[in-house]
Design a protein that fits this description.
- The protein has 95 residues and is mainly α.
- The chain has one domain.
- It contains three helices and no strands.
- Helix 1 packs across helix 2 and helix 2 packs across helix 3.
- The longest helix has 29 residues.
- The two termini are 14 Å apart.
Length: 95
């Protein structure tokens, strides 16, 4: 069981970190601290978007339209935290 639990925890930890980086980077871009005309920033931003879009798309389809506010990262973040802290340990008998 530990052979499955460990990699799942690692994957969820990486997704957790990537979501945090994506949210912080979106704030910095919106407040014009980072500029998408810089090649490195643009490549990092588009790479993160391509990584997270398969996670965000089903959540966006489920959520109602809220105008300019995108709640998909928040919902994905809550799901990842729930999986890491409560659901996986319960499924594998660590709680």
């Amino acid at each position: 069981m530990m052979a499955i639990y460990g990699p799942l925890q690692l994957i969820l930890s990486v997704v957790y970190f990537i979501i945090i980086v994506h949210v912080i980077m979106s704030w910095l871009i919106n407040f014009q601290v980072l500029n998408l005309r810089q090649q490195f920033v643009a490549q990092l931003w588009y790479g993160l978007n391509r990584l997270l879009e398969p996670i965000y798309r089903p959540i966006r389809n489920f959520l109602p339209d809220t105008g300019g506010i995108d709640l998909a990262p928040l919902v994905a973040f809550i799901i990842v935290i729930s999986l890491r802290a409560y659901i996986l340990p319960t499924l594998f008998g660590f709680m």
